[in-house]
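Minutes, structural biology subgroup

Action item carried over from last meeting: produce the structure token record for SsrA-binding protein (Rhodoblastus acidophilus). EB confirmed the sequence was re-checked against the source entry. Recorded below for completeness.
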Amino acid sequence: MAEKPNSNFKVVADNRKARYHYEIGETYEAGLVLTGTEVKSLRTGRSTIAESYASVDNAGEIWLINANIPEYHSGNRFNHEPKRHRKLLLKQREIAKLSQGVAREGMTIVPLKLFFNEKGRAKLEIALAKGKQLHDKRETEKQRDWNREKSRLMKQRD
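Output recorded by EB:
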């Protein structure tokens, strides 16, 4: 077999609960405005985006709120604040779509994955999502259990 080329793509943080709590709509890839110590801390892979969300301000900018990027252990007095608001870099058309979706009832901007792309740049995958009701969450759980059981039965049959 041919060897796969070595890719620099590295997932730093994944928000797995988002797919359970929200119905995911359109997804976008956004850049982040970060300081040097934040990038170094991200490369160690210890950040979390589970409790974070994105918000549109009056100036037409989107900000990532409550994402935890811990302080860099070798950073001295120039270290960053772990839970500061971080600006997201998107095209104007994408910002307009997201702000219109948030203006509608029940829609929110949810971060799904924080990663480094092939060029080594930190990117955030965000989605326009709608919160699920309790019965929708139960249905998702039933479907996931049934798929797991189905694959188990197929393995036994072979």
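Discussion: The chain has one domain: 10-132.
Next step: EB to file the record with the rest of the batch.
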